[in-house]
Amino acid sequence: MTDALLAAIERLPLLVPEGYGLSVQKEITMRKFETLLLLSPELSAETREGILTALTGVVERENGVMEEVDHWGMRDLAYPVRKQMRGYYVRLVYQAPAELVAELERNVRITDGIFKFVTVKLAEEVEVA
Question: What architecture does CATH give domain 31-123?
Fold first, then answer.
C-alpha cells in the first residue's frame, strides 16, 4: 500500500475492516466507585461470601479491580425493610469503567438476599496501575 493510502486509512479507523494489520486501541477510562449493600440478616456466612465472590467476579470479568470488601456487620435499621429490623452491611470499593456499574447493579437486583444497594462515584478518573 502507498503511504497516502495508509495515512487515509489511519484518519478513518472506523472504516478499516479487521485484519488489515492496523490496530486501533480503545482507551478505557477507569473510575473509582463504592457500592453499599444491605443483605438479609437470615443469610448464612457462607451464602454472604458466595454473593460477594460472585459480585467480585463480575467486577473482574468486566476489567475492573476490586480494591476493598469491607464487612460492616449486622446493624439495626431505622425502619423495617422486608419485615426485618436488622440487616448485614457490606461496602465494596472498586475501580472500573463506567459501563460496569450497570452490569454489577443488574446482578445485584437479581440476587436473592440483597435488600437494598446504592452506588456512588468516588473519583472521576483513576490512574490504572
Answer: 2-Layer Sandwich (3.30)
